[in-house]
Specification:
It is a single chain. This protein has 178 residues and is α+β, with helices and mostly antiparallel strands. It folds into two domains: 98 residues, Peroxidase, domain 1 (Orthogonal Bundle); 70 residues, Glutaredoxin, CATH 3.40.30. It has a four-stranded mixed sheet. α1 crosses α6, α2 packs across α5 and α4 runs antiparallel to α5. It is globular, with a radius of gyration of 20 Å. The relative contact order is 0.11.
Length: 178
């Protein structure tokens, strides 16, 4: 996890430096698009991680994807660094860490709300406001759906988890019988 934090911090520092020619939002949008592509097509990760494919071929493949996705040279160089260091599979974690670093710089936190079914934006906003009030910090929540919760919510912010899911309640009842 230290490597993830390091890559995220370097990205934030370089993009946030005075006189940086690249916008944080633009670069993150480009890198996120590439990340989503690797998630949707796991074969792509295997191609870039393959020891059989040489650096030059990996570079050409990345360049082709970069042109297709209209990725800037800066983003392409960052992705190339991750590929050379066999860290491309960490890209989603790096992006989450960048968001966390940015939120911390602004005095806030990024959290996650997990529900059995999708929540509407108003509900997510109300939960974020309630947690913000409790923690005395601005909290932004990412939404995730996990049907195994059955019903209810699980919210994790700043290392603390509030679990009001039916699954957690059933587990507590089960544990009380042992």
């Amino acid at each position: 996890m230290k490597a993830v934090r390091l890559y995220a911090q370097v990205l934030v520092d370089v993009l946030g430096a005075p006189g940086s020619k690249h916008s944080m939002e633009g670069v993150l949008r480009e890198i996120d698009a590439f990340s989503k592509l690797t998630i949707e097509s796991p074969l792509m990760l295997k191609v870039f991680d393959s020891p059989v494919m040489n650096e030059e071929d990996k570079s050409k493949t990345l360049k082709a994807f970069s042109q297709k996705l209209d990725i800037s040279q800066f983003s392409e160089k960052f992705l190339s660094l991750l590929i050379r260091r066999n860290r491309l599979q960490s890209l989603p974690d790096i992006l989450r860490e960048v968001e966390s670093i940015q939120a911390q710089k602004e005095g806030g936190l990024i959290g996650e709300v997990v529900s059995a079914t999708p929540l509407d934006a108003a509900t997510v906003s109300a939960i974020a406001q309630a947690i913000s009030k409790k923690m005395n910090k601005k909290v932004s929540l990412k939404e995730k759906v996990d049907p195994s919760l059955i019903a209810g919510l699980r919210v994790t912010v700043g290392g603390t988890t509030y679990d009001g899911s039916v699954r957690a309640k059933l587990n507590r009842v089960k544990d009380s019988f042992h």
